[in-house]
Amino acid sequence: MASGKSNSRSSGRASRGVPKLTHLDDQGRVRMVDVGAKPITRREAVARGRIAMQSATLKAIIGGQLKKGEALAVARVAGIMAAKRTHELIPLCHQLPLELVEVDFRPAEQPAAIEIQARAVTIARTGVEMEAMVAVSAAALAIYDMAKAIDRGMTIDAVRLISKSGGRSGVYLRDHERPWPNPASRS
């Protein structure tokens, strides 16, 4: 190398103290991870994101006054459908048998936004984090599509993992955030 710096990625090995990226082989080439020897366990992931908008847009969505119809119902279905097709959207994801996908919404007035949460559950050899995040992203995009006629300035942001459980790495909980209660348990 001209700069004289070593390239730790050229060998595919992580430097001391840094975990190795599992989607790279020893030569640094992209690969799909072999999960065949991993145990089948129950795995759950919760992701969240938001779509910010004008106050009038939020009122129209919550009030069911969009010309295209019920934005949140369409967004919920879009999120569920997208989670089921994550392996087709994210190149190295494994196709998973999803036991459950839930998509829920919480409007916020100051600033005007809709928080979106998705929960995905599987019994498999690998986790469902990507499925939950894809569900949130697709739900946000569906809201944008439903309301773009009145607000093209909407912004989708903060898509993140809130929690995950199951598998070798165990439980992850994002600092200062917890999953919302399951919609079915709120009756």
Binned, the helix content reads: 10-25%
Shape: elongated
Major sheet: size, sense and barrel closure? Answer: 5 strands, antiparallel
pLDDT < 50 stretches: 1-14
Number of helices: 4
What is the structural class?
alpha+beta
How would you characterize this protein structure?
Helix 2 (71-84) packs antiparallel against helix 4. Residues 1-14 have low confidence and may be disordered. The protein is of the alpha+beta class and 187 residues long. 24% of the residues lie in helices and 26% in strands. It has helices at residues 55-62, 71-84, 86-89, 129-147; strands spanning 41-52, 98-108, 113-124, 155-165, 172-173. The chain is elongated and about 55 Å long.
Describe what is shown at a glance.
This protein has 187 residues and is α+β, with helices and mostly antiparallel strands.
Tags for this model:
disordered N terminus, 4 helices, 187 residues, five-stranded antiparallel sheet, alpha+beta, single chain
Which helices and strands, and how do they pair?
Elements (H helix, E strand, L loop, with lengths): L40 E12 L2 H8 L8 H14 L1 H4 L8 E11 L4 E12 L4 H19 L7 E11 L6 E2 L14
Antiparallel strand pairs: 1-3, 1-4, 2-3, 4-5
Helix pairs in contact: 2-4
